[in-house]
Amino acid sequence: MPAPTKPRRGAPESKTRIALVNAAMKLIVDEGYAAVTTRRVAAEAGVNPALVHYHFRTIDDLFLAVFRRGAEANLARMQAAVDGPQPLRGVWEVMSEPRDTGLTLEFLALANHRKAIRSELAAYSARFRELQEQALARVVQAHGVTLDKPSLPALTLLLSGLPRILAMDDAVGLHRSRGEVLALVEEYLERYDLPAVGDPSADDGDAEPGHQAD
Amino acid sequence: MPAPTKPRRGAPESKTRIALVNAAMKLIVDEGYAAVTTRRVAAEAGVNPALVHYHFRTIDDLFLAVFRRGAEANLARMQAAVDGPQPLRGVWEVMSEPRDTGLTLEFLALANHRKAIRSELAAYSARFRELQEQALARVVQAHGVTLDKPSLPALTLLLSGLPRILAMDDAVGLHRSRGEVLALVEEYLERYDLPAVGDPSADDGDAEPGHQAD
DNA sequence: GTCTATACTTCGATAGAC
DNA sequence: GTCTATCGAAGTATAGAC
Questions:
Q1: Which residues touch strand C (CB under 7 A)?
Q2: Is B171 buried (19+), middle (13-18) or exposed (0-12) by CB count in 10 A?
Q3: Which of A121, A195, A203, B79 is a plausible cystine mate for A111, CB 3.0–4.6 Å?
Q4: For B79-131, how does the pLDDT look when each residue is reduced to its tens digit (9 = 90+)?
């Protein structure tokens, strides 16, 4: 549905629009979603306040634009991790990105009360989780085993939960045993992930290292 | 510290004050923390708007009062779980309380940008985690084993993370393998928690069932 | 696409009568 | 403790000239 109710103004791709999305993202990260107001986002972007509502009909539309940009970037990084030489480590690194933690938290809170953002977040989360599952599937297959209990999706849930927990603990200043858990993760990555390039301790050699740089 | 900077007005215990805290909590859960405004919280509580700033110098003070009430209730429930007949199950149930999920999420977002709330949340989280560790310690001791790797605190982190992950997944509509994980949890509770009252499958009998009703 | 100007609403917080 | 009344600031969104 291209023009639902108010075809008053279209909004193509433009320099200003990008600047507004950037400004909004910065505000969310630095001060929380409540800081994203017409005037403040315009000031941060260095444009006239009226332009905000020219490019985005409502503030919620701006939120959606910010979310989509971050979501697409994350999905791309996750896809690269899945296809990379060390899927598990790649997934771990993507999910441990500290910058995303605050942003995710804000959108999670937003989604609780804004239908549009909620459904967008749900769709994104499902795709994100699916990619994680693919990464895990690739590693499991390389080891020549079959997961029964827990199943592959369940194990994915458990593993993908860990970085999020560490991130949330970090957000509230809980650092107890963080180091130990990180060391444990490192140990398991060494043991179960596909072997690093140049690592002689491979127990299976037919993985194709189609790595792409960043 | 009874009168820190602005001794303009004191605020004792009163019916109105409680009503305001209740109203604010309801607003946070239903519509997010941004819905807590002077006028709206007064309307929800059925009192005059000016009373909000009589009882709470700022809106942030009101947020803190709401948080403290919930935090103290949670700590009490967690303490009861620790002392109860089945510590692991008790902890699991306290942490899986669906009502708290939204509230926690809101305060987590708030804490990202409000110093006072951040430090309050940090202190609370540490105490909460400590109680979880005590529960786990009690069960581990009952089994007569010693945890070395992962250590007790690390295992606590891992275990206490699971219900939070499930809650967050639930918040974004991710229900994949939720049932399987829940069943897995149930299985482990049956196996490792202290035996339920009247359960003949005890492998150790010197636990004192000092349960307290709620 | 971008600007000025503005309509309308709601905000936090306070003063002062009762 | 509770009320009426209000200040000044900030919010969303739009109209219309350029």
A1: A 10-16, 47-51, 54-55; B 6, 8, 36-40, 49-50, 53-54, 57-59
A2: buried
A3: A121
A4: 999 999 999 999 999 999 988 999 999 999 999 889 999 999 999 999 999 99
pTM over 0.70: yes
**What CA–CA distances, in Å, run from B33 to A110, B43, B70, B71, B116?**
10, 16, 15, 17, 15
Which DSSP string do the residues of A18-52 spell out, in sequence order?
Answer: HHHHHHHHHHHHHH-GGG--HHHHHHHHTS-THHH
pLDDT tens digits for range A158-178:
999 999 999 999 989 999 999
Measured between alpha carbons, how far is residue B68 from residues A136, B7, B11, B27, B116 in Å?
Answer: 41, 22, 16, 16, 12
CA–CA dist A129, A94 (Å, integer): 12
Interface test with A, best of B105, B108, B112, B170 (most A CBs within 10 A): B112
